[in-house]
Amino acid sequence: MDPKKELQRIGEELEALKTGTKNKLSMIVFSGDMDKLLAAFIIATGAVAMGLHVVMFFTFWGTPALRDKKKKAGGKDLFGKMFGFMLPKGAGKVKLSKMNMGGMGTAMMKHLMKKKNIASLEEMIGLAAELEVKIYICDMSMGLMGFKPEEMIDYPDVEFVGVAKFLEEAGDSKIQLFL
Amino acid sequence: MNVDVKMDLKGLACPLPVVKVSQQVKKMKVGEVLEAETTDPGAHADFPAWAKSSGNEILKTVKEEKSAKFYIKKLK
Q: Any catalytic annotation for residue B14?
């Protein structure tokens, strides 16, 4: 056991006992819009820099952004196939919430971001993985839209959970957000 | 001032400067000084905010023509 890490853990637990909260940020990612997802990941990675543990809970329209464009899942019913076809396949396919203009606005925004050296959504997900941001995916959304775990991105710390898990995490977090 | 590590963060946009600085400081020893050069205007608010919440110290900020250099001392 690393004594430094153990000391930090004990310190955090003491703080938790005093304040009823841990150094943690819990976030619900409901939106599937590129701009809002980007904001979610900027806040998440920034929060790690500020010394917080970060938990992101993806539900509803946020879920398809975590699909892997290269992966396929079989055995879906008609509605599952329809959702699979109509919803964005991964972070590279999500659109702006405003000024999308049939995809032109989103393409222009991506171009501008590259020019200004702003990290893309895919890069931000990679950074979040590096920084050990935890991702939970809502099991019910997966089932509703017919998504299978095997078609989601390879992410080091991902779990498929229900609402109670999120509430448990949110209950002792310093910051809770809904995006 | 004795600088132990230099970081070139020019061109990087929010949140990368503060994320990279925090990762770097984690690797350093207490008392060491990091020089971080950035072109991100948000850093003038972000670095002090980060230093305050992480318990480190910004010794000095030097404004250059297009960038700024932050001298950060690791306190814990």
A: yes
